[in-house]
Each structure stands twice: as structure tokens, then as C-alpha cells.
């Protein structure tokens, strides 16, 4: 399966993206601002090609096992990022909750110059099984690109 994150807009401190699996839109993603020099836990992932993997040892696993006991098998990690580690696709609503990770949602709004996403838990429950399957397959590639539209 072909998995892509396509960035479509930037706020003052936030970046709004679309997540596609096999060219089908899945949900919105929210990241931190794109920066030339990385600030830990405040910088969007660099564009490029990476892999998805299942992380069963990181600190967020216990919390997500409780929140999503019927589906959680481990965190979906974007692996192979230069100067980044433990980058998970997870729930949240504002750039302040990203810690350098993409947050998923079914809608977005612009508040005081920054994007926020909504219905994050709903989006996570929908995309998690799909991303889990990809992370456990040989076709576990994910690409990140910029295509700013607004």
C-alpha cells in the first residue's frame, strides 16, 4: 500500500496535512511548524521517504492500551527520521500536543492563526487498523511532501 502525508497549509506554529492510503484521503494530520533548524518537540517532520513500524516499547503504549483496549497493538511509529525519535501518529487537537508527532483528526479549524483538528479519537480509531496492517507488512513505506494550497 502507498501511504503519503501531504502538507497543505501552514499556521503560525502549526502545519495541516492530509493522510492518504492508496491515493484515498483518510484524515487530516496536524504537526508543528516547519523549521529550517530543528527545535526538539516543536518541529515538523522533514519531507522524505520513511517507514512505518509498530513500537511496543515506547512510553505511550500503556496509555493507549487503556484508551483503545480492543485495537491497540503498539504505537504506529514513523521510523528512519533524521534527528527525530519516537514519532507516533496519535490523538490530540493542537500543535501544543504534537511533541513533534502528527496528530490525526476528521476536521480542522483555524484559531488565532493556527490550525486545530477535531474528532481526533474517531480518526485514530478509523486509521489505526489500516496503519497497523501497513506497519506489519513489507510495503511499510510512507512519504511526506509539501503541497501548500492555502
Characterization of this structure:
It comes from Pseudopedobacter saltans (strain ATCC 51119 / DSM 12145 / JCM 21818 / CCUG 39354 / LMG 10337 / NBRC 100064 / NCIMB 13643). It holds the Pfam family DUF5675. It is a single chain. By secondary structure, this protein is an alpha+beta fold. The chain has one domain. Helices cover 15% and strands 38% of the residues. It has helices at 61-67, 120-135, and strands spanning 3-10, 14-21, 24-32, 48-55, 75-79, 103-105, 107-111, 114-118, 141-146. The strands form 2 sheets. A 7-stranded mixed β-sheet has the order 5-4-9-1-2-3-6, with helices on one face. It has a two-stranded antiparallel ribbon with strand order 7-8. A hairpin with a 2-residue loop joins strand 2 and strand 3 (24-32). The longest helix has 16 residues, at 120-135. It starts with a strand and ends with a strand. The mean pLDDT is 96.
Amino acid at each position: 500500500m502507498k501511504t503519503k502525508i501531504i502538507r497543505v497549509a501552514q499556521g503560525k506554529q502549526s502545519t495541516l496535512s492530509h493522510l492518504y492510503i492508496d491515493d484515498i484521503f483518510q484524515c487530516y494530520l496536524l504537526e508543528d511548524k516547519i523549521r529550517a533548524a530543528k527545535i526538539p518537540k516543536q518541529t515538523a517532520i522533514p519531507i522524505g521517504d520513511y517507514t512505518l513500524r509498530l513500537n511496543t516499547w515506547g512510553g505511550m503504549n500503556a496509555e493507549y492500551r487503556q484508551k483503545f483496549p480492543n485495537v491497540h497493538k503498539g504505537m504506529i511509529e514513523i521510523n528512519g527520521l533524521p534527528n527525530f525519535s519516537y514519532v507516533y501518529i496519535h490523538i490530540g487537537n493542537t500543535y501544543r500536543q504534537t511533541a513533534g508527532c502528527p496528530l490525526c483528526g476528521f476536521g480542522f479549524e483555524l484559531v488565532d492563526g493556527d490550525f486545530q483538528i477535531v474528532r481526533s479519537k474517531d480518526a485514530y480509531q478509523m486509521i489505526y487498523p489500516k496503519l497497523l496492517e501497513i506497519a506489519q507488512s513489507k510495503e511499510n513505506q510512507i512519504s511526506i511532501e509539501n503541497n501548500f494550497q492555502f
